[in-house]
What we know:
Layout lengths: L1 H5 L12 H6 L7 E5 L5 H8 L3 E6 L2 H14 L4 E4 L12 E7 L5 H14 E12 L20 H7 L4 E14 L3 E13 L3
Parallel strand pairs: 1-2, 1-4, 2-3, 4-5
Antiparallel strand pairs: 5-7, 6-7
Helix pairs in contact: 3-4
Amino acid sequence: xxxxxxxxxxxxxxxxxxxxxxxxxxxxxxxxxxxxxxxxxxxxxxxxxxxxxxxxxxxxxxxxxxxxxxxxxxxxxxxxxxxxxxxxxxxxxxxxxxxxxxxxxxxxxxxxxxxxxxxxxxxxxxxxxxxxxxxxxxxxxxxxxxxxxxxxxxxxxxxxxxxxxxxxxxxxxxxxxxxxxxxxxxxxxxxxxxxx
Length: 196
């Protein structure tokens, strides 16, 4: 599915970073950033432009090739890893930040992945998360049609046990990211920190 979606010449979700990531980027420690479910690379490239050493992970080789193309276009470099997040190993204590933007997974994959995310942050490290909320299911502005892929804030709070969650909000906001995310949307946003 994802290789087909990313096969278009244009970027399915645009070339500009997610707005929540843009607003929270000052909270990210200098150093290494891991972007999971990164697709065509818009967020990874943005962070590389800010001087971070960024690794983008995705299941789609087509998406990651476009991520490298965008990095070249913007004059930066990123690392890419082709992997299934169901069994992607995250080295404990390795990352200054981990970013999950509209990375929707079934609970049996999401919950253990999010636990690996918590373990993978180094002390003081930052989590930046935005995803669609269950209320998005009634909208035609983007996101999965399967409600199991749309966790609410309470589920995510459980997933990210062990982090200090300083920003946790469910909200409606306009999302304008490429052709697939367009219009008023119900989202969950989380900014968390690993205790130092």
